[in-house]
Amino acid sequence: xxxxxxxxxxxxxxxxxxxxxxxxxFLYRNGxxxxxxxxxxxxxxxxxxxQRKLLDRTGIRSASLSTLLxxxxxxxxxxxxxxxxxxxxxxxxxxxxxxxxxxxxxxxQIQFAQRLFSALDEHEKIQLVRLLGKLFAxxxxxxxxxxxxxxxx
Length: 153
Known about the structure:
Blueprint: H1 4-7, H2 11-30, H3 34-46, E1 49-50, H4 51-58, H5 62-74, E2 78-82, E3 90-94, H6 96-116, H7 122-145
Antiparallel strand pairs: 1-3, 2-3
Helix pairs in contact: 3-6
């Protein structure tokens, strides 16, 4: 049993405290560029895509994503071009430097995940995936009911 059972009687309160602590630790350890890393990782793993598809995949607000993409573009990691089939869409493509940075970020994420979950055996990891997936699906459904289906993921 953990130390939180003494301070917080209900498992829900214990989960909230532990979830907050885990989230804080995760964000602290992931550094300042979490948005950039997430976008670069998605583009590296999934390939070129429209800005709209990237927006749907990240759940980042449109204006925030545009600002983030401008910063990534200024670093020389992406190119943006109007989609020839539909000028309303913008294609996002990694440059050669972006592909190298994407590979570095993905490798860093893999190493981070290995450290992050090293205390769990494979069975526990599978259980955690199932439980977090269930939570996420519930939160996503709640957002959809509230008309905010593209927020928070």
